[in-house]
Amino acid sequence: MSEKPETSYDFNQKHLLGLADYSREDILHVLEQAKYFREILDRPVPKVPTLRDKTIVNLFYENSTRTRLSFELAQKRMGADVVNFSTSSSSTKKGESLKDTIRNISSMKIDMVVVRHESPGVPHFLTRCVDAAILNAGDGAHEHPTQALLDMFTMQTIYPDLKGKKVAIIGDIAHSRVVRSNIIGLTKLGAKVVLCGPKTFMPVFVEDLGVEVSHNLDETLAWCDIAMALRIQLERQDEGTELFPSLREYHERFGIKLSHLDEYPDFTIMHPGPVNRGVEMESEVADSDRAVILDQVTNGVAVRMAILYLLSGGNRV
Amino acid sequence: MLLKNLKPVSNAHKGEETVNIRVEDGKVIEIGSDLEAQKGEETHNFDGAYVSPGWMDMHIHLREPGYEHKETITTGCDAAAFGGFTAVACMPNTNPPIHTRDVVEYITKKAENLAVDVHPIACVTKDRAGKSIAEMADMQEGGAVAFSDDGDPVADSQVMRVALEYSSMLNAPIINHEEDLALSRPGHMNEGKVATRLGLDGTPGIAEEVMIARDIMLADYTGGHIHVAHISTRNAVDLVRQAKKKGINVTTEVCAHHFDLTDEEIDRQNFDTNFKMHPPLRTQDDVDAMIEGLVDGTIDVICTDHAPHAIEEKEVEFIYAPNGIIGLETAWSITNQQLYKTGKLDLQQLMDKLVYNPRNILNLDVPEIKEGADANLTFFNTDEEWTFDAKNVRSKSKNSPYLDKKLKGRAVGIYNKGQLVLNEIRN
Predict the structure, then answer these.
(1) ipTM exceeding 0.90?
(2) Domain count, chain B
């Protein structure tokens, strides 16, 4: 097998700020390339030297376990030099500005920057500060494009063509970056999306994103091919900013239960993690053979390898 | 000094005839179409520009005392003059706030010799804390023209009631930044389609509207004068329109950017923080409502909410960036483009919003263009194309959404307090 995937598609993106900037063809191309890297992950030595001349910095201003590890693993499997910078937004707010930080790091000759931040628009802001390729690893409640790409990749392993497929996204829509990127990506690929959850989790005009809204979990599960539950941000329940009365009531109304699996035998369960067992779904549901939650994690490495490869200058005509 | 080839626009002049105006020691001496320069007399040819009584911006931030790295009284007045304003009223969110007479007098004294008249707006409550009312009468004697806690709206309804009753005795308005903070925090832009798309917490129009509704009812009950600061939503304009019909003592103002730009800009400009201000840019329907409100007289005044911030304060993550943009220097161009060139308002009607109404609301003398009167004049055109680039910013800060934009119509100078300021374009 070669070190690089074969293709003739003219992929012309410099950054991955969000899927809003990517065409249907761009998205399909990334997913197609990811298949090649997914195969590599199953090799005895799951490594390629594709990025051996590249230096990448991972800038994480928010806690993250799986996204940060997934990016780092993807980078190391491709032979890149990797530096990590993790801190909390609140501690840097008082110190050096983000602009100064990124310009200093960039002066050390960095090719790519992976950034996670609590503020929407930070990846866009960084493109105005430095020349490196910027990859959004989550900006506030705006976008989390690699998560949506790995979600779509995982869906494609079940339904190779997502056109007309029915995807339900259940939970805290308002505060989710995962949902926005998924809506953009899925609708570009022709899938139908229904958002399900309490009305207080639905931002105003959310239907304008090209989705429908339901407050009835049973109807939603009966309808969908894929049910993606989102993490309830438990910390918000303590701040006096509650958007629903109790975890108990949430789970009763919107938690996926074992009984649902029998009642609606067709849908597949996804979750971007981390799962609050007993809230978004019963433990047995998360561990059932209907769930592909751990496949999502594995696929995440392959998808990130693909996008890193493409943005490193691979496959530029 | 002879000011030549000017077309007067005022309540008494339609801007149709061209005259020369002789001014001396701050007074208008003579007006006539055939005035000739006397021997050795300083002469300026305005080539057919309009002249009106001096404009007033009744909602700006001069930042002094306390935040001189953003703006000073001097640089703020330079910006005002460049924008054609001969008078400004400055908000009290300084440090210390304008909540005692000595701070009022510090500002008026510092502005004494500047070409622009500076009228402090003093705090409603001590420390702008919203708890107990400040010494309004004393501050008024020191020169304060109105009372406002600016960005910290008076949330306690009883405090607002007392403030309206007390200030009505002084015949001075309470200016409230209308926002129910419980509904709006931690909003970073207008709550709506764009905020939903961008994942930014929104400031809903309803946060502005419920506060206006309350203040209108309190003004009705107390007989006080409520001036609604920087109105920005269609429903808010409707509330003021209905209240005026009932004869309630309410007036309002709109910032130039609110009848020009929409929340789509945050997306289009990739989270540029120079489009972040409070109230936020709203929707096209709201922009249309601002123009309708200006046309039917619901909105009395055009203002800027000129709010300078240093580069390092604005060049940060969107949700950390402070609210506010500078506006003095671009207000006329936006007004010209959006209201005059579109035929919505004629020049005389625009002078109501820029000259007469702000001074009437604040009970200030209104300047006139006539022989023997104080010469308080703004010179402006409607056709000149120019670019508001960094070189031409007179403010100490450059946080403008119009930076590097091509604009139409310009204030070419002012004359006030015996000083002629000519606004040269720097190339």
Answers:
(1) yes
(2) 2
